[in-house]
């Protein structure tokens, strides 16, 4: 099946980044979210990020205009009915995602691929909400989507070879590098990354170092481009906590237990860059 029309559901940081990349590669893409204010915020972020690309001479003003013209929006999930591919990019809540996949299965054509950008939840479980588990797959883009090359490709138990091949080829057309991972909590990227971030939060919690010093040590000593606490702020502390909870529940190992300080920040609404306050003030 040739993919021409893409629907992305969820206009948050990941969703708007995915829309950005598809539109820039000349795909017609529809962004769907529950409220117009979320869509407006997503379009503003896309425009701002494209302006940055124009300034850096990565794209031209004409290319920006053409990309934006490829984007349509809706607040009605039923508008996903005509898609060739749907990518779910809503928040990390299994029950909400299951409900969404069940509805998408009902309204889209039977051969349409239903992909999830989940960073930790089981693809096999999401596929179980549909009558097409062979057409359900994980496409875990990295943040920020326009810059990061990796797309983790996660197959569920029933995902067929054609779906895997189509998804991998599509990622390459987006200028990305698809890398396979098995359907296990956190897959590869976050099973390794989140315990490191969590340990950095414990180091802060226990007073071993200040936030800026912890990050500086990891940047200079381990050659990381960004410290773990600054990275957590970029990802979103609520997202970090949600992934750790999936790891803890799914793998049953206490080493994935979220640091109490991380929980406290999330309870306070200090979620990182998106709220203006996390381990740093923005």
Description:
The chain has 282 residues and is of the alpha/beta class. Helix content is 48%, strand content 14%. It has eleven helices and eight strands. It has an eight-stranded mixed sheet, with helices on both faces. Strand 7, helix 6 and strand 8 form a beta-alpha-beta unit. The protein starts with a strand and ends in a 14-residue tail after the last helix. The mean pLDDT is 97.
Structural topology:
Elements: E1 5-9, H1 13-24, E2 28-32, H2 36-55, H3 61-69, E3 71-74, E4 85-88, H4 94-107, E5 113-116, H5 123-127, E6 136-141, E7 150-155, H6 161-173, E8 177-181, H7 189-205, H8 211-222, H9 228-235, H10 237-251, H11 260-268
Parallel strand pairs: 1-2, 1-4, 2-3, 4-5, 5-6, 7-8
Antiparallel strand pairs: 6-7
Helix pairs in contact: 1-2, 1-3, 7-9, 7-10
């Amino acid at each position: 099946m040739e993919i021409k029309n893409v629907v992305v559901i969820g206009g948050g940081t990941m969703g708007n980044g995915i829309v950005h990349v598809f539109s820039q590669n000349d795909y017609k893409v529809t962004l769907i979210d529950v409220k117009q204010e979320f869509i407006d915020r997503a379009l503003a972020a896309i425009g701002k990020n494209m302006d940055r690309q124009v300034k850096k001479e990565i794209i031209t003003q004409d290319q920006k205009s053409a990309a934006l013209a490829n984007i349509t929006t809706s607040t009605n999930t039923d508008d996903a009915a005509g898609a060739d591919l749907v990518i779910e990019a809503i928040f990390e809540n299994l029950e909400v995602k299951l409900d969404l996949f069940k509805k998408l299965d009902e309204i889209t054509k039977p051969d349409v691929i239903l992909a999830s950008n989940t960073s930790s939840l089981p693809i096999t479980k999401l596929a179980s909400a549909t009558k097409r588990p062979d057409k359900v797959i994980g496409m875990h883009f990295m943040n920020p989507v326009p810059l990061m090359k990796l797309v983790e490709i996660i197959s569920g138990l029933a995902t067929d070879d054609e779906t895997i091949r189509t998804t991998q080829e599509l990622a390459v057309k987006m200028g990305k590098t698809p890398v396979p991972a098995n359907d296990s909590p956190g897959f590869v990227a976050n099973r390794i990354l989140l315990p490191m971030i969590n340990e950095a939060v414990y180091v802060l919690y226990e007073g071993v170092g200040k936030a800026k010093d912890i990050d500086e040590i990891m940047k200079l000593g381990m050659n990381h481009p960004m410290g773990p606490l600054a990275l957590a702020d970029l990802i979103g502390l609520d997202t970090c906590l949600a992934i750790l909870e999936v790891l803890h529940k799914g793998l049953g190992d206490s080493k994935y237990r979220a640091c109490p300080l991380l929980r406290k920040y999330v309870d306070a609404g200090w979620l990182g860059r998106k709220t203006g306050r996390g381990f740093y003030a923005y």
